[in-house]
Amino acid sequence: MVRLITHNLLACHVKGCDSNNFPLTFSDAEVEIRETEYNAEFLKGFFPKLEWKALVDSARQLGDVSLPETPPIDYDSNEEFLRALHHVLLEIHVQEGSMICPNCKHVYRIQSGIPNMLLAEHEVAGR
Question: Which Gene Ontology BP annotations are present (predicted)?
Answer without folding.
Answer: rRNA (guanine-N7)-methylation; tRNA methylation
